[in-house]
Amino acid sequence: MSMTVDVDVESAVDNMKIASSNAIKTVYEAVVNSIQSCRSDDTEHTISVEILSFNRTIDGKSSSHVDGFKIIDDGAGFNDDNYRSFCTIGSRLKKAKFGCKGVGRLSWLKVFRNVEVESTYCLEGVSYRRSFTFNLKDKDVLGGEKPERLEESVPNKTVVKISGCYDGYQKYIQVTAKGLASGISSHCISSYLDLKKSVPLIKVIHGDDPPEIVNEIWESTVSDKDHDSVTVKNRVFNITHVKFYKSFDLKNGISLCADGLEVKSFERFPQDLIDEDDRKFRYRCFVSGELLDSTVNISRDGFDLGTSLSVIDDFTDPTVDDIIKAVTPLSEDYLKLYTDSYNDRCRDVLRSFMDTDIGKSFSSVVKYSPNLIASITPDMTPEQMHKLMSDEYQKIESELLFSRSISKKDKVRTSEAVEERMVRINDLHRDELTRLFVHRGLVLSVFDERLESLNRFYPDKGEEYEMELESIIHDLLLPQGTDAKNVPTLSNCNLWILDERLNTYAFQGAYSNQRICKISDSPSEDVPDVVVFGDIRDNMNAESICIIELKRPNRADTGIIDQINRYISAFIGHKIKNYRNEGISVDDKTTFYCYAVCNTNSPGFDDKMRFLNMNKKFGGRGYYLWNSNVGASYDVIDHHQLFADAKIRNKVFFELIGMEVGADTVIVTKGEQLEVRLNDE
After folding, report:
1. Could you tell me how far CA 268 lies from the centroid of its own chain?
2. Number of alpha carbons in the 13 Å side-chain half-sphere of residue 422
3. Are 563 and 594 spatial neighbours (Cβ–Cβ below 8 Å)?
4. Strands 280-288 and 253-258: what pairing?
5. What is the pTM of this model?
6. Of the residues 122, 280, 589, 592, which has the maximum number of CB atoms within 10 A of its CB?
7. Residue 279: helix, strand or coil by DSSP?
8. CB 108 within 8 A of CB 162
C-alpha cells in the first residue's frame, strides 16, 4: 500500500528566503516561464508584461503606485502536462531542458497575495480553456482540474496575474516600464545570447504610455567576444562580454548565471565607458558553467557555494570569490582600451580643477591620495570636485592628528618616519595658507565688483539703490547684527581688509550695526557701523577700542568725523559688554582707533578735513590724525583706496602661491602649470 506525500505550501513559502531588494525578480521569473513556454516550437511569439497600478488618479490615468503585474504570452499554455507540473512542487518536467527546480511559483506567493491564471491552448486541433487561482489563503491550486472545451478554435493565450504585494516588498516593486524592461533584459540576456532567434518579442506596458520593447535593448547590444572561458580549480566557466548602448540603468560588472539566467551580479569597473566611436556604453561580463547550474539555490538569488576563501581551506570546488577573482582580469583586459580612455578623461577633470584658484589649495591631496582618480568621474562638476577634495583633505589631516606615536626602537626608521611626517605637515600647512589667501583674493574681487557696480547706477532707484550697496559692503566686512549672540566666524569676518589685527580682536568682542545703549550702559541711541574690542587690561579696562564708520560710495559726507567723536563721547565713562557678558570699562586711558570709510573726493570734503587739522595721506586719497587730547587716531579712507591698500598688503602672499594681483581687481590665476601624477607605474 502506498501513500501520497503532501507538500505544505504555506511552510514551503515560509521557508523560502527572498531579500526585499530581489522582490522584482519574481516578476522576471514569471517572464522566464513565458519564454520557456514559447520555446515549444519555432514560430514567432509575443510576451506582454503589464504593470498594474494600485488605483487610478482622479483624471482616470494610471497611478504610479505599482501593486502587481500581468504576464501574457501565446506559448504552449497550461495543457495537462504543464498543469500537473504547476501543481507539483519540485516538478522535474523542465529540469532537463531548462534547468528549472520546479519551485518558481512559490516565490510569487512570497511576494504577492494572489495568483490568477487563465490559459487557452490547442490539443489535437481542439481548443481548451483552463482557469485557476493559487494563494496561501486557500493553500492550494483552486480550479483547473477539468479544462473547458471550446466550440471554436482560438489562438493560444496564457495570462498570469500576480497582485496584492505584501507591505514588506511593496516599495521594491515600484518600477517604471523603462526600468522593468531594463531589468528583464539584464536578467534574461544570457538566454538571449544563446538563443537569439527563438526569443519572443517582449513588451512592457504601463497605462496608455507607448510600450517599452525589451528586444530593442538586446538588439542595441554588441558582443565583441561571444565566447571566452576560464578554468578555476578544474572547473570550466564560459564568459560572454557584452556592451550595452541603451540600458544605462545597468551597472558595469560581472554576472554569474545559471541555466541561461542572471542570478547574482557584482558591480565592478568605471561607469560611462566610451567606445572607439565616442558612444557611451555599459559593460557586463556574463559567467556560466555546469557548477553554477547545479548549485543555484531555490530562490535563484545565489549559489550554494562558499563565498570566501577562509570558509573551508580544503574545499575542492571554487568559491564565488574564486570565480570573480579569476574572471576580473579577463574583463579588465577586454575593457583596457576603454578604461584607459576613461581614466584619461578623469585626469583631465582633475587637472582642470587643479588649474583653478580653489584647486591650488589641494595639492597635498593629489600627492598623498594615490587612489584619488578612482573617485573621480568624467562628468564631475567643480562643486563635486571641491567636495571630494575637501573630504580627502580631511582624511589626510585626520591621519596626521590621530596616528599612533612613532616607534623609537629603530633610530634610522624613526628618523625617516619623523621626516616624512614633517614633510606631510608642511604640505598641508601650505595648502591651508593657499586656501586662506585664495579666499582673501576672492573677497577682494567681490569688494571691487560691488564698487564697480556704481558705474552701472540707475537714477530711478536713487537713495534705495545706494543704501542697498552700502549694506552689501558693510556685510562683507562684518555682517550686520553681529553681537554677543551672533558672533563672527572665520568665513564671514573680513576686517583684515582694514587692519590685520582687527580679525583677531573681533573674536573677543565685536558689534555691527548695534545701538550703543544695547551693547553698553550708555544711554546713547547712536548706532556705530562696527565696534571692535582691542586689548583688555587685567582690571577689565579696555586698552583700546576700534570704531568703524561706513558711508555710501559717491555720497558727499563731511560730518563723518563729528559722528565718530559723538560715539567716543558716548563710550567714555561707561562699560561695554563682551561676549561673556562682562562689563569692560572705557576710561580716559582707552585708545580709540577710528576708521572712516567714505568718498574723500566729494565736494567740500577737503576743506572740512583742513578745518579739523587732518593730515593728507600720500597720494591724496585719504587723511589721518592723532588726537592726544582724546586718545584717538583717525584714519579716513576712500572706498577705492581701502581696496587698493588691502591688495598691497596681501600682494606678497598672492605672488608666493601663484596668484596675480591686477591693477583694478584681484584676479586669481593658475600660476605655474601643476604636474599631476596619478597611479604611475
Report:
1. 18
2. 6
3. no
4. parallel
5. 0.46
6. 592
7. coil
8. yes
